[in-house]
Amino acid sequence: CPGGPSEGSEAKVKKSRSSRSSRAGLLFPVSRVDRQLRRGHFAERFGARAPVYLAAVLQWVTQKTMDAAGMICKNNKQKRISPSHLQSALQKCSVLKQLLRGDAAPRCHSRAVPQSQRGASSSKKKTNKSKKR
């Protein structure tokens, strides 16, 4: 067919560009977080997944805060989230409260003995048994 597309142009299919945020399935901008990390000089080097992970964490914290504030707003029979709703949401949610307070990661309150101490305690028991004989 004269005037039709040539075979060479059919072979080359353009790849549609997609942002790193859309590839990661996030709403927060991964490229902007990446740029801020580089400008901030927090580290000499960081991996390619670091801004993706950080953007995901920021999105999670924002979602959790807005959900809690929205529920408080709904309970008060109001239609707009105000700063007081956000503050009370942060006060009521223990995870967000601990995160913003600056404490370390949530700790387990179990009585499990770490692996290194297990070995030390078992060797002491063996020495006591050998002394009794």
TrEMBL record:
UniProt keyword list: Acetylation, Chromosome, DNA-binding, Nucleosome core, Nucleus
GO molecular function: DNA binding; protein heterodimerization activity; structural constituent of chromatin
Domain of life assignment: Eukaryota
Main location: nucleus
Segments of skewed composition (Basic residues): 123-133
Family matches, as SMART domains: H2A
Domain Core Histone H2A/H2B/H3: 11-91
Pfam families attached to this UniProt entry: Histone (PF00125)
Entry annotated with the keyword Acetylation: yes
CDD domains: HFD_H2A (cd00074)
SUPFAM superfamilies xrefs: Histone-fold
Quaternary state and interactors: The nucleosome is a histone octamer containing two molecules each of H2A, H2B, H3 and H4 assembled in one H3-H4 heterotetramer and two H2A-H2B heterodimers. The octamer wraps approximately 147 bp of DNA.
Family indicated by similarity: Belongs to the histone H2A family.
Record protein name field: Histone H2A
